[in-house]
Amino acid sequence: MIVEHLSLVDFRNYATADLALHRGPNVLVGRNGQGKTNLAEAVVFLATLGSHRVSSDAPMVREGQDFAVIRARLSHGERKVLVEVQLNKQGSNKARINGSPSKTNELPRYAHVVLFAPEDLQIVRGDPSARRRFVDQLLIQRTPRLSSVLADYDRVLKQRNALLKSARARGIKGEGLSTLDVWDDKLVSLGAEIISARQRLAIDLQQPVAEAYAAIAGEDHRPRLEWALSVRGADPEEPEAGAPVTAETSGDIAEMFHAALLAKRSNELERGLTLTGPHRDDLVLSVRGLPVKGYASHGESWSVALALRLASAELLRAESPAGDPVLILDDVFAELDADRRQRLAALTAGYEQVVVTAAVEEDIPDVLHAHVVRISAGTISDERLAADD
């Protein structure tokens, strides 16, 4: 897949913006704070329906405006697709595909993108929520319909938590809240599907991550991915987390989920909070048999983060009839030592389209240094087009 043209209206610092991109490497150069990452973020949103920088859409709308528009012309071989999304500060977002209204969760069917960014270090070193977000965004790219499942789970979870808080305020204890059973059934149905999909993804990522890690680090540190499931007693959101577990069938998960909810009902009523489910799980990453978080060096942590992104790209590349995903390397080379820069560049240069952003042009390895666009205070200057004129 190729992004041929990107157009923005009232997105971040851009009142309007137009960016032409080419097959192969594209380099966006500009000082920090000029808008390079905003362009990358816009492309990524079309593929994941989310941002790698913020958890809500409102910050992406330019100050003083009610909505922003991201529009992109995509090339899938000989086929051209125009995708568009309107991000609203209030209310649901709206999407159009080839000019016709569409559901927003249809966008990832057409836009396939993998982003590498400095924030990726938080995937391996940050809270469990960072790892869940990484996994869920990749799930949406692989299976777009899971966007609705994840959204429905969040909705049910909020409603169940509201009921628990109301019960706590009224002093209801134990089995005194029979209406909770209805929400339990909905939560389990959606949550079991999410847990199963996450576990399958971890299994599918295992070998590509191991291969990518060895290619980036130059060593085999036996990276592993395993889920710690709250329905099995592990709760990474609490100080004492349990051990990671391996994959079960969705039926097993549903049974465990129901049992865990029943076992924790009294505690949930006391706290006004749902204490088990995929919203409290964690993807445990390890190298050399030890958890990356707390044990891995800075270089090892970066190698794991980059391996996760490369493995994601390889999965999408292998599964998508649309060809390679677009790779976006957003200010990532400034974070890496010379060896990892060269290895990452060599591993990504062969993709159909690569977009690299950098504050210092010299940070970009020669193999990725091609079509250059300069960004300054929201102004886009295409050197190649200027030279052609």
From TrEMBL:
Cellular component, GO, one term: cytoplasm
Subcellular location field: Cytoplasm
Record bears the keyword Mitochondrion: no
SUPFAM superfamilies with a match to the protein in the record: P-loop containing nucleoside triphosphate hydrolases
Single GO MF descriptor: single-stranded DNA binding
Residues reported in the UniProt entry to bind ATP: 30-37
One protein family per Pfam: SMC_N
One of the protein's GO biological processes: double-strand break repair
Domain of life: Bacteria
Main location: cytoplasm
PROSITE patterns: RECF_1, RECF_2
Keywords from the UniProt entry: ATP-binding, Cytoplasm, DNA damage, DNA repair, DNA replication, DNA-binding, Nucleotide-binding, SOS response
Residue ranges of domain RecF/RecN/SMC N-terminal in the record: 3-362
Physiological role: The RecF protein is involved in DNA metabolism; it is required for DNA replication and normal SOS inducibility. RecF binds preferentially to single-stranded, linear DNA. It also seems to bind ATP.
Family that this chain belongs to: Belongs to the RecF family.
Name the record gives this protein: DNA replication and repair protein RecF
Organism lineage: Bacteria, Bacillati, Actinomycetota, Actinomycetes, Micrococcales
Gene name in the database record: recF
